[in-house]
Amino acid sequence: MAESFIPQGAGFGDCAAQHCGTQNGDNGRVGPSNHGADGDVAAFFARNGFDALATQDQCDEFARRAFPTASLKSVAPQGYCSYTIAVNESHLLQFRPSAFALNLGFSEEARRVFGSLVPAIRHMGSVSGTSANALDAPGGLHLHVYLQERIQGETLAAFQQRKDIPPDAMAECRRRLVEDIAQFFAVSLRHARYEDGSEPFAKGHVGSTLRWRGELLQQLRQDQARRYAVSALRDLRRIEASPWCLTHGDMVPANIMVDPRSGRLTGLIDWAEGEWLPFGVGLYGLEEVLGQHEHMRGFVYYPEHEALRDAFWATFSAASGLSVGSHAGLAAASSARRLGILLWRGIAFEDGRIDRVVEQGRDDAEIQKLELFLSTPDRLPRRQPHAGGLSSALSMLRRLCEAMSASWKRLRVPLPRFFGSSAEVVALAKTTSDSTQGRYSA
């Protein structure tokens, strides 16, 4: 557990650590020695207003003092919102600016619900970084420091690029992963809460601004996407009446960890954007595992993506004990899914700002996903006509006509002229009933 690595007392204790990777570089930074503040690390510090070289040195010094016997190593690739160092094979040290601080209360709640799929996290303190602006007062910029349990396996992004797995075996791995993700969504639904329920919950950045974001999405210039945005805003009241579930908030291949031998889900990392959201909004994440990015083509679905969707819903229904097609509380799932796609692919993310929709020429990759995801059928199980529906009424009419025909025959009186023959009456009722049942159950 992470607690065994927390420095004792007010100072920094001697924390034993397993060796992991390259030793600290001779230049004083976390290894490898030629890493410096290049690439992802330098870009992260610069985006957030820090002097890259000086602030990385300050973070590395914090790590060395906290874990003096560990072989610290800068991980690759780095995340967009943090600087991360591997302490050993089981723990990571992560530095995050205040804008991307973790909600530890939500992380703990998610871990109680999802168990080992969520890493244990402990706040270690903060580092005063050096501003890139020499005119800024010293100590004005801070980085929160978190000790985080390391989820075993590799990211789905890396797994998707493997060439050493035969196509049939890779397809089986994809099926297993989709079924595990279905189990994840089923668990979240079993622990759902309602706006008017007895268990209160705090809405996050997205959940508390759904209407504002829905109105922003009306500015989309893609005709199909804008039509769906209009529909989602019109349906928002029904979506918000759905069960609210613990939602990851950034379910993309870089944050999905899998077992490289089986493809099974081992965990989800980076819960910084996790929050309570209506069921279905988080289903945008399912799209991300039904295909992958290909050079020059953008995102492409796997050939078996429809079968994978069916496997998802079959597993979800079995695990949750609910059928999306028949449960009244989940009636808005399809609309909520489209809303989730619009929220995550229709609004541009610029260093934490969310004040504009995606635009052609600036966000082409996002627009390609947005249009593809929205135009692809979700294959959610649909509600079948219930006993009081039109199909049932027509069946009753058919039985009534058969009974009337039998009665006229017993009385040996011909049917009135406007009824036609008894055979015609029964045939008409049967044809109407059968055709309507077929249309409503399609």
UniProtKB/TrEMBL annotation:
Transmembrane segments: none annotated. Residues 139-273 form the Aminoglycoside phosphotransferase domain. It holds the Pfam family APH. This is Aminoglycoside phosphotransferase domain-containing protein.
